[in-house]
Design brief:
The protein is about 35% helix and about 0% strand. The protein is mostly helical and about 55 residues long. The radius of gyration is 22 Å and the shape is elongated.
């Protein structure tokens, strides 16, 4: 099996431009996606309203 052909120059330039601008790139680690896709940790992340429950809101 032969190796895949190299990416065309226009694709390499586009990837370089995206990387320079901090964009997400295929096949690269994306910390924001990791954070968004992490399991929900429950209500501990949110503050509780100081209003009494059933206070007519």
């Amino acid at each position: 099996m032969s190796p895949p052909p190299p990416d065309p120059p226009i694709y390499r330039d586009l990837m370089r431009t995206w990387a320079d601008r901090g964009r997400t790139l295929p096949g690269r680690h994306d910390p924001e996606w990791t954070r968004l896709a992490a399991p929900w940790r429950g209500l501990g992340q949110f503050s509780v309203s100081p209003a009494p429950r059933g206070g007519g809101r």
